């Protein structure tokens, strides 16, 4: 998936700082998760496997093409991590 990021639920302090930084409004509290806990499970699993990002990078040039697309997780997700920073 293009620049799919996860938040480690055990390290998140619910401060909300990340929410306005998300360009596609994808960060939601766990109380708004799907009934099966899909996003909590994805965040928990991949936060343990993928590298931490410590430096803000440039957004992808084609980000506008994907901003309102639906079903991105099913279409593009890959368990392979990016490089992190």
Kindly name the structural category.
Answer: mainly alpha
Major sheet description: none
- Give helix % range: 10-25%
Shape: globular
Let me know the number of strands: 0
**Poorly predicted tracts of residues:** none
Q: Ends: how far apart? A: 17 Å
Overall structural domain count? 1
- Helix count equals 3
CATH level-two architecture = 2-Layer Sandwich
CATH topology descriptor = Alpha-Beta Plaits
Please tell me about this protein's structure:
This protein has one domain (1-85): Alpha-Beta Plaits. Helix content is 25%, strand content 0%. The chain contains three helices and no strands.
Which terms summarize this structure?
85 residues; mainly alpha; Alpha-Beta Plaits; globular
In short:
The protein is an all-alpha fold and 85 residues long. The protein contains three helices and no strands.
Give a topology summary.
Elements: H1 38-49, H2 63-66, H3 72-76
């Amino acid at each position: 998936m293009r620049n799919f990021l996860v938040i480690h639920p055990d390290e998140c302090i619910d401060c909300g700082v990340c929410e306005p930084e998300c360009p596609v409004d994808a960060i939601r509290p766990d109380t708004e998760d799907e009934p099966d806990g899909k996003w909590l499970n994805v965040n928990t699993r991949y936060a343990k496997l993928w590298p931490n990002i410590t430096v803000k990078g440039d957004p992808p040039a084609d980000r506008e093409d994907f901003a309102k697309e639906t079903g991105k997780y099913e279409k593009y997700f890959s368990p392979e991590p990016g490089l992190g920073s």
